[in-house]
Amino acid sequence: MLTIKEVTEITGIAASTLRYYEKEGLLPHVERNENGKRLYDKEDLSWIHFVTALRATGMPIAQIQNYVYLYKEGDSTISERKLMMLNHKKEIEKSIKELYFNLDKINYKLALYDVLESQIERTSIKI
């Protein structure tokens, strides 16, 4: 079992964020010792990484809460959870597509600047 300090060192996630995730019900299994200190196991670390990935890809807290609720309901919700992940995956893919589209525009502009700079360098060198 790991303390919150050890988990922050392993994951790089602030203790306040971990407490917030737990308070919001995003970490379903965090135990506490007799003094009330949080204790994390490997499954908790997996949940932390999963929730972090969902947050980093734009999933709202409320949607993650719903996912955790469904998870706690058991195997009868697997299809619904899968659908949630498929829909989120589609949103991520859409965002990636938009990023690549915009990256192409930036790369085009950079290539244009390369051409302009090379023209300036050729015309300004006179012997």
From TrEMBL:
Keywords: DNA-binding. Residues 1-70 form the HTH merR-type domain. Coiled coil: none annotated. CDD domains: HTH_YyaN. SUPFAM superfamilies: Putative DNA-binding domain. The keyword DNA-binding applies. It comes from the Bacteria. PROSITE patterns: HTH_MERR_2 (PS50937). The keyword DNA-binding applies. PANTHER family: REDOX-CYCLING DRUG-SENSING TRANSCRIPTIONAL ACTIVATOR SOXR, TRANSCRIPTIONAL REGULATOR, MERR FAMILY. This is MerR family transcriptional regulator. It comes from Paenibacillus agricola.
